[in-house]
Design goal:
By secondary structure, this protein is an alpha/beta fold. It has two domains: 3-270, Spore Coat Polysaccharide Biosynthesis Protein SpsA, Chain A (Alpha-Beta Complex); 275-356, no CATH class. It is 29% helix and 27% strand. It has ten helices and 17 strands. It has a five-stranded mixed beta barrel with strand order 6-9-7-8-10. Helix 1 (37-46) links the parallel strand 1 (3-8) and strand 2 (54-59). Helix 3 (86-100) packs across helix 6. The protein is globular and about 60 Å long. The relative contact order is 0.14.
Length: 357
Amino acid sequence: MNLNAVILAGGKGERFWPKSRADFPKQFVSIFGKESLIQTTYKRIRKIVSVYNQYYVIPTDLIPLLKKQIPLLTKNIIDEPVGRNTAPAIGLAAIYLEKLAPYSTMMVLPADHIIQNEKAFADCVKFAYSIAQEGYLVTFGIPPTTPDTGYGYIHVGRQYQSYKSIKSFYGKKFVEKPDLALAKKYLKAKTYFWNSGMFVWQVSKILDAIKQCLPDFYQNLKEFQQYIGTRKEEAMLKKMYEQAPATSIDYAVLEKVKNIVVVKANFIWDDVGAWAALERHLLKDTSSNVTIGKVFNKDTQNSIVISDQDIVATMGVTNLIVVKTKDAVLVVSKEKSAHLKELINQIKQDKTAKKYL
């Protein structure tokens, strides 16, 4: 396969505060094992795409952290001056690849997902690659297992092609995060998949779609392209990014084009967006608690308790998440943990407290 992998490594991971910080975000933290999420992503992709064909889009200030965790060549790091969501990040990677490998196909992956059954994942990638050669923009749809309101959905139409036991469908439309009643309807309908945020497409086709949907940004990308590899590259990149729209590829592009095909994933996927995800991947004790570090629980049930240092002790509590680091403590009910950004925003307003973010 003439395939390049583009890994989006610039997320903030605020819903994993206080372990995840602005200068050490979730994708670099060892939460689900000895390795960080970005390290496990790197190893997974290396089985499909050579390290020489992996490109990491990442903010400037996180590059030293990336180099420390993953052995990369400088050419494999695409420096993003400031975070502008996924549309600019993908457009930037595509404009680099158009110059470096103009007839190639790119696979786009977030740096912080958990994927099980890597053989099935590799088969889905190969299938998606073959579909992309027909000119389609391919995404991976995850069959929902619960009426989850935290994911965007993709509504699919008739079947397109199949490969082994993997099926693909024409994409009808992308749907924003629904309320619970609508999510239950989607689950029952079986024609709505979770939007995984993982894509495969020809470099030329995604640039055509950006040109169609974000013409001003596309023109800025093309103007910047001539400076790649020159002494003016850094300055022109900053200038171009000052005008880049802060929007997602789904909202800005994919919702507006017609050549979408969805590969129905047959691997286990989790975007591990908040602390509650630990329950899905770590062992529980006899009281359904997940504990990490020096933790003592008494009459505590169905809780997640984490201590980076010293001890944490709980008694008589249920459905709590408690996280202690060297300089911060979080206590939140499970039902509110997915909304942790609201608390983060409150902390940001305090000049003496925001340094802990």
